[in-house]
Amino acid sequence: MGAPVTPAVIEMWLLTQFRWVPASEICQRFGVVERSLRATGAKPGLLSHCAISGDSGFKHVRHATTAEWLRCKGRLARHGELSGRRPSWEKHTGQGVLI
Question: Which 8-state DSSP code applies to residue 70?
């Protein structure tokens, strides 16, 4: 039996994928269950630190477009996953950044 899959191993592979990757493909490739990819309460998912999720699966944050980021942010806000975080306002542009 091999070593447990770490978030870093999945992240390195996801970096090579310049597309939306279905959760089923990630699960099959790494032998994990779909629920482990996403955060559960205060426990981060295997991809919480490196990927956004959407209707088509997961995409590494480095490959996400601005529009994809905004859709992901809107979904997280609707689900209450951004609650407890407060914006820090950038002085020159007025843009809010969650801290």
Answer: H
Handedness of CA 79, 85, 86, 91 (dihedral sign): negative
Joined tokens for residue 54: 């959407």
Q: Are 13 and 59 in contact (CB under 8 A)?
A: no
Q: What is the pTM of this model?
A: 0.73
Residues 6+ apart with CB under 8 A from 39: 45, 48, 81
What residues contact 47, with CB distance under 8 A and at least 6 apart?
7, 10, 11, 14, 26, 37, 38, 53, 58
- Tens digits of per-residue pLDDT, 31-65? 999 999 988 878 889 998 999 999 999 999 999 99
Q: Which two tokens stand for residue 14?
A: 């996801």
